[in-house]
Amino acid sequence: MKIGIDKIGFYTPHIFVDMAKLALARNVEPEKFTIGIGQSKMAIAPITQDSVTLAANAALSIIDDEDREKIDLVIFGSESGIDHSKSGAVYVHQLLGLNPNARAVELKQACYGATAGIQMAKGHIALNPDRKALVIGTDIARYGLNTSGESTQGAGAVAMVISANPRVMELENHNVYLTNDIMDFWRPIYSDKAFVDGKFSNEQYILFFNKVWEAYKEKTGLVLSDMEAICFHLPYTKMGLKALRTVLEEAPEDVRERLLAHYEASTTYNRNVGNIYTGSLYLSLLSLLETKEIKEGSRIGMFSYGSGAVGEFFTGILQPNYREYLNISGHKRLFASRQEVSVEEYEEIFEKTLPNDGSDIDLDVSKDPAAICLSGVLDHKRHYVNKLHK
Ligand code: HMG
Questions:
Q1: Given CA atoms 34, 302, 96, 138 in this order, what sign does their dihedral have?
Q2: Which helix (H) or strand (E) segment is 318 a member of?
């Protein structure tokens, strides 16, 4: 039985800052951010968006009534969770009006959470082929103003329906995964900003990629020319390129050119959003499929990396007519409708956070065009609105 991605949708907040302007404000040459890091625009989450609303807005764009009835597993992959106990999945389940007879849980392992979710969903569908699973990667990447990680922030979510006979991509079963306890990036529970050893994290990302790729080749006998494209977890768009370059020598010239051209297409969305942690690899897949006509039946390599660290290499096969099941025009509209804010406005939005002393707050959701918003905190409980349900 084929199991894989049946639908895939994306959401990012309506405001962004221009990276060249951010560079100038930080006394850095714009090319460092636009070429050296490879980012053009950075999505910013207003106070009315958190990991729950980003996830729910992404899922809202793809699910229909049949999905609402058939989804009986909701996995919320995130490292920006809003509660140490209750999972974001339960809020999303309610906001989307899903079948009550469902399991809903949150998974955490840095940027790897959604990949873990997809692999678990595959097992669930293998046992329950007539059901569907909703897997979401949702995050707000925060390093802090004037930090070296600042240029790699971002916000957004990717939602996927995993099912039997998937219409977008069948997930193959030759996965290779690797865990090693390292401190390259982490966020202690008292901090709303990540701590990072930037250079070490870059080295470890590449090392993990090299190790899982070597093991994948040994396990499957497949080589680079069997991959039409490879999508990477993209903390910033130059990162995947650095990893890809370490193996390109293995392939003949035409394959190298193809992989590099497809890599470029797989970074377009990420370049304009920034790091969305758990969703980044899947945003890169969307970018590839929606900005380039990749042949049906092609094998796509996927490299997932979550600091701390867990890495995985796996592959998928594009299904017949898969482009008909993408939301290309919806995503075009989403990008086109975003508004630029100045660096000063971005800094103000960044510093405007929810109270952390337990006090209440009432939020104005009228300026946020998202359907689902955080409307406030009352008695230590977050309250959400779905503007489509008046
Ligand atoms: P930095 O010190 O600001 O930058 O840190 P740099 O000095 O390393 O320069 C960056 C690049 O810009 C270099 O290119 C420079 O040469 C180039 P490279 O040599 O690396 O190819 N450059 C220029 N290029 C053109 N014109 C110029 C110019 N000037 C310089 N004028 C760093 C960069 C990424 C380390 C930092 O932003 C950071 O710490 N980011 C956060 C950590 C991160 O993203 N790590 C990636 C791997 S770990 C990961 O992916 C997991 C993660 O997503 C978290 C999770 O799993 O949850 C982060």
A1: negative
A2: strand 310-318
Contact 315, 174 (CB under 8 A): yes
Q: Which residue's CA is the closest to the ligand 1 atom numbered 50? A: 235
- Phi and psi at residue 357, to the nearest 5°: -110, 10
Kindly state the DSSP code that residue 274 receives in the 8-state scheme: B
Question: Tens digit of pLDDT for each residue in 98-108?
Answer: 999 999 999 99
pTM of structure: 0.98
**Are 71 and 63 a contacting pair, CB within 8 Å?**
yes
* 377: enclosing H helix or E strand: strand 372-378
Phi, psi of 347 (to 5 degrees): -65, -40
Q: How confident is the model at residue 390 (pLDDT cuts 50, 70, 90)?
A: low
Domains of the chain in start order, with CATH, are 3-168+326-386 (3.40.47.10), 171-321 (3.40.47.10)
Q: Is 84 an annotated catalytic residue?
A: no
Two tokens at 108? 């955490």
Query: Catalytic residue at 79?
Result: yes
Distances (CA, A) of 62 to 7, 118, 222: 7, 17, 33
In the DSSP assignment, the letter for residue 305 is E
Instruction: Report how far ligand 1's centroid is from the alpha carbon of 196 (Å).
Output: 11
Which residue CA neighbors atom 5 of ligand 1 most closely?
148
